[in-house]
Amino acid sequence: MKDSDTAAVRNNNPAGKSRSVPLDCCGGLSNVDYSEMDLTPMKELLKHIDFHDSSFCIAVIAIIFNPLFWNVVARWEHRTRRISRLFGSPYLACYCLGFVIILLNVYRSHSMTVAMKAQARWEVMDRTDVFYTGVALMVVGTLLVVSSFLALGFTGTFLGDYFGILMDEKVTGFPFNIIENPMYWGSTANYLGLALIGASPVGLVLTAIVAVAYKVALRFEG
């Protein structure tokens, strides 16, 4: 670089300060400066959670165990047909597994409720608008769960295809025409609604774990 060019640069930037380079909007999240994020709300939320509380740990185990259990059992049945042979019928075997899954889900809901009640409420969430948002989420979640069950039937809902029980055609009506996997996301909406109604920060964390567990399960279920 010539001396005249160097002098010109110095004149334009006399203090020698580094200039920020404009971000390329097409670079996605790789261009996000995470150091500028305000993490205060997250820190405040986490302050209200006791991660060592036994009820929290039990709820997390129940959340992770449920989809792991039914995916492992269903795949084992698909390979070996052991459960169908044990019960003498694929339908009876599917009904039995479905009943066990229902009981596990009831226990998961119970354990999450116990964890929410055992830990502190967050005054930031303890507002009327948050409460009614939670109610709305539970209404929507229940609608998705019930309507998807009615569309799929018992065997369609509870992994009947792994038992060789196939539906005549793919279900494309409501709610599958507006959202994929409505049973899973309806259930997640119910838990989120319950957390908002109870102004429960631990409920938000548990709901996030439910969503992650379902996302992982969907990777295996295809």
UniProtKB/TrEMBL annotation:
Cytoplasmic side: 108-134, 220-222
Record family assignment: Belongs to the class VI-like SAM-binding methyltransferase superfamily. PEMT/PEM2 methyltransferase family.
InterPro entries linked: PEMT/MFAP (IPR024960), Phopholipid_MeTrfase (IPR007318)
Membrane disposition: Multi-pass membrane protein
Protein name: Phosphatidylethanolamine N-methyltransferase
Catalytic reaction equation(s): 1,2-di-(9Z,12Z,15Z-octadecatrienoyl)-sn-glycero-3-phosphoethanolamine + S-adenosyl-L-methionine = 1,2-di-(9Z,12Z,15Z-octadecatrienoyl)-sn-glycero-3-phospho-N-methylethanolamine + S-adenosyl-L-homocysteine + H(+); 1,2-di-(9Z,12Z-octadecadienoyl)-sn-glycero-3-phospho-N-methylethanolamine + S-adenosyl-L-methionine = 1,2-di-(9Z,12Z-octadecadienoyl)-sn-glycero-3-phospho-N,N-dimethylethanolamine + S-adenosyl-L-homocysteine + H(+); 1,2-di-(9Z,12Z,15Z-octadecatrienoyl)-sn-glycero-3-phospho-N-methylethanolamine + S-adenosyl-L-methionine = 1,2-di-(9Z,12Z,15Z-octadecatrienoyl)-sn-glycero-3-phospho-N,N-dimethylethanolamine + S-adenosyl-L-homocysteine + H(+); a 1,2-diacyl-sn-glycero-3-phosphoethanolamine + S-adenosyl-L-methionine = a 1,2-diacyl-sn-glycero-3-phospho-N-methylethanolamine + S-adenosyl-L-homocysteine + H(+)
Functional note: Catalyzes the three sequential steps of the methylation pathway for the biosynthesis of phosphatidylcholine, a critical and essential component for membrane structure.
Transmembrane regions listed in the UniProt entry: 51-70, 90-109, 130-154, 191-214
Intramembrane portions: 54-74
Localization annotation: Endoplasmic reticulum membrane; Mitochondrion membrane
GO biological process: methylation; phosphatidylcholine biosynthetic process
EC number(s) per entry: 2.1.1.17, 2.1.1.71
Gene Ontology CC entries for this record: endoplasmic reticulum membrane; mitochondrial membrane
